[in-house]
Predict the structure.
Amino acid sequence: MSIYANGKPTPGPSQATTAHRTAQLTAENAQLQHAVHSHAVVDQAIGVLLAVGELTPDEGWDVLREVSQRTNIKLRHVSELIIDWARTGRLPSEVRTELDAQLAAHRPSPRPDPEL
């Protein structure tokens, strides 16, 4: 309840309004938690790709995105598969084939031997 300058109280939000706002905030909180978790999974998968493919973070992101698009598998799921692959050595053949192609396309060129 708030009070106007004339000293008379004004009604606060109704219980229905409060319940609706609480439900909105709860849903928003759940969405943010999901987004944070998804972002962490994607970042971990990019880390795997950096280690395996000797890539920059931007190149790792590009490889992950391309694999997702070309296999028609959601980015988060591809990320989960790549993280699992790092632990188990298992990766679905469709994803493995596309990952190999993308890593080959993004792999740095061999550096010339400075002694030649």
User: Anything to note?
Assistant: The chain has four helices and two strands. The helical segments are 15-53, 57-71, 75-88, 93-106.
